[in-house]
Each structure stands twice: as structure tokens, then as C-alpha cells.
Amino acid sequence: MAAATLLSCNDKNVLSALFDSEGIPSKITSSITEELPALPGILPSTLRELQDRETKAIKSLNAESPARQQIEDTIQELSAIIQSIPEYSSAWNNRAQAIRMIVGDDLTAPVAASSTIYLDLCQAIQLAAVTSNSSPRSSVSPLQRRILASAFTHRAHLLYKASKSIAQDPSKRISLQAELQGVDSDMLEKMATSDFRQGGNYGNEIAKQMAVKLNPYAKLCGEIVREAMINDMKESGVMPSHISL
Predict the structure, then answer these.
(1) CA proximity to 197, closest of 220, 213, 186, 179
(2) Of 60, 124, 155, 177, which has the fewest CB atoms closer than 10 Å, so is most exposed?
(3) Residues 137-153: pLDDT tens digits?
């Protein structure tokens, strides 16, 4: 009988990445604690008022095709909320969502580059990730988790789309926001992958699926399987040997 092969830590990580059904690390980086303040630093009474204002502001966006003026009014009201309580992360996240309805989701487009969509999401993540002094660093409230899942996934989508756009036309890099200047398509995809993984960790199912799709080990495995299938078809005569895919 052959001696058992001991796997290195890296081998174990590779296998975990390939065969983990969620495509993300098995250890979730955050836990939900109901007893935590909904948003640290914001009093419950103030939070209720902010949520009421925010709900009214975004209500018109639930229509199938909201008018541009309705979207602009929503952005204006969310901006007013942010100005009154800058620590309210949900307003930053929803303002980015509303801006996207006007400027689209291509960060290399001038209209998007001149907007605050990317910075709004960065701010939403930074604020929502804050924990109370009495809680473990990895614990977040249900509201924090919802905001983080949404913001990470939205930012990941923007970064991923930008990576594809720049891969097709590298000259578009100059149109990116100042914070992303000098970042190439490969790095943008890595940033997107990291954000999708975080979004998945916080419970967004779409982010989990994208984390699987962009997993470098899974992509490598897919290429190996594809090549093996092609070779098998050529050997069996199903595919002519001179064809290259």
C-alpha cells in the first residue's frame, strides 16, 4: 500500500478553494449578534428618524421605471441625510445605488468617473464595518451585515466591470476615479474578487456565486478539465486532431 501523502497548508487551501460549495473560506469573518447596537454611534431614536426619512426618499425608486427627476430628488434627500448625520452608512450605500441609476455601472465612463458612486460605497463600507467598543471585532448587527453585503457586492460589480472594460481598451484607465488611477485590469479583478468574497461572507448569494466564478484555483481547474476533454475527444475521433480551441 502506498504511503499516505501529507498535504501542505497551501495544498489544503487550494483544495478548500476548489471544492468549497460556496467558493469562499469556510470560516466566516463576521458573526451576527442581535444584542449589538444596530449602528454603533447612532442612538436608536435617531436611527428610527433616519430610517423613516430614508424610506420615504427611496420609495419612488421602487417603480419599474422611475423618472430621472425622481431619482435626482432621491439623491438630494439622501445627501441631506448624510449631511445631517454623516455616520449613517445606509444613506451612503443607497445614494450610490441611486446614482448608478443615472450614470450606469461603468467606472471608466466619464459620467461615472465624475460622480461619487465609488467613494459613496467605500464610505458605506468603512462606516458599517465599525464595531462597538464592547463587542468582538468580528461581530456585527443584522443591519450592519445587510449594508455591508449590499455595499461590498455593488462595489465588486463596479470593479469587475471596469476590469473587463480596461482589458478590452487599456486607454480607458485614464477615465477612472482618482482613487483607482494606476490600477490595471488584473488588479481591478483581484479587488472585485475580494469584494465579492466579502459580500458573500455577509450573506449576499450573488456575491458568493461570483466568488466561485472568479476563484483563481477554480478557473485553473476548469482550464485543466477543458483541455483534458478536448484531448479525449481528439483521441476518440470525435474531434479532428488539427482543430485547436
Answers:
(1) 213
(2) 60
(3) 568 889 999 999 999 99
